[in-house]
Amino acid sequence: xxxxxxxxxxxxxxxxxxxxxxxxxxxxxxxxxxxxxxxxxxxxxxxxxxxxxxxxxxxxxxxxxxxxxxxxxxxxxxxxxxx
Length: 83
Fold this sequence. Notes:
alpha+beta; 1 helix; 2 strands; 16% helix
């Protein structure tokens, strides 16, 4: 089960997060995009709502991971994968 953790200084080079939720102006969003573009590693998402907006799309807080098992090595017979 995941958890939601805030970040004290999201602009710090060592800050780790997956998404920036911003209730701010278009100018503030532009600044946030510039900060995110300078960060190393994976591209982090940015969601912008109008200042004072209280509705946040909760689906943006979900990180989806997929797992795939390649059964080709067992000739497509998945029961052989358990041996």
